[in-house]
Amino acid sequence: MSFYINHVKLNRKERSPEGAFFSEMRTIEWLSESNTVRMIDQRRLPARLDHITCSSASEMAEAIRTMAIRGAPALGVAGAFGIALDAINHEFSTISDLKRKLKESADLLEKSRPTAINLAWGVRRVMSVLECQTSISEAQQQILSEAKAIAEEDVQTNFLLAKNGASLIDDGDTIIHHCNTGALAVVDWGTALGAIRYAYEHGKRVHVLVDETRPRLQGSRLTAWELDQYHIPYDIITDNAAGYFLQSGKVKKVFFGADRVAANGDVVNKIGTYMLSLAAHANQVPVVCVFPISTMDLSIDCGHQVSIEQRDPEEVLGLRYQGEAVAPENASAINPAFDVTPNELISAWVTERGIIRPPFTQNLTSLRL
Ligand code: MRU
Description:
The chain is α/β, with parallel strands linked by helices. The protein contains 11 helices and 18 strands. It has 2 domains: 2-159, Four Helix Bundle (Hemerythrin (Met), subunit A), CATH 1.20.120.420; 162-367, Rossmann fold, CATH 3.40.50.10470.
């Protein structure tokens, strides 16, 4: 296990054809020598860059529930690898035994977090290769190779959507960014933060105002840490300061990702996204949402059909300020992890296949899904 302190530059060596870098370190990866999955433990950053390893779907479900791994696209890969872990590391007597066991693993993984569609998408894509399998060893190999393919595709997909998103960023922009949508939320690169990184690495000067993103602080803990690695200038702001900065006229764009995008373009994303979008809209600041196609859920008409994860109130109440509790001992709290931003507030939806402008439903056809 490695321990690093903040401001350690990640090793980056591989160049894409356009000259941007891919990170050497991946947020989540399959280790062939031990048939385990290694992930950056996101509960420890920025204090420590630790890894955890999982060897079963139930360990993976726990890592997802406790947010050692998080971010919609990373959850898709975690779900796929979770199935592969049980397929490879379990003893099966018959192919039906394997199918029954993996069905249980799939249910467990899908239930570990309900809102990001990518988790169910990753699990179901891997499970779909099982349908025509009749041999245990063939099924095991097919499942593992599908899960690895999902992880590889994630890097390429994110690189493409980052490039598309970067085309909406102008030299000198100040951008408000919500939650963490960088390499830590995917296998590599990132969605909204990937676009900011792509723009910066291609010579555009940007300044990021990082919403701290209460209560889990993905902004100040994870996004600020990533921006340090990329040497991109930023300031952390409290979530409730966003309106102040938007009103000042200095903020040129708002960028965030998505956990699910409905057929009408409503965006379900980290709690606070709705409030931020309202303030941006009121101040005529463009709101840009960046996500892979796997985050779209065309089976739902609007965002309000999505189940919003309610997390432990302790995440709100358990913080300490100067060593002291931030709420009375017996206080109660309500802690929704996501909210719904209506499509009318979004100026552009950026995917790996291109950019959709309003009206979303009409222009979605341009992606030829
Ligand atoms: O609760 P989290 O940290 O998993 O929530 C993550 C977000 O809401 C991100 O903004 C979203 O997944 C898009 S990241 C590529």
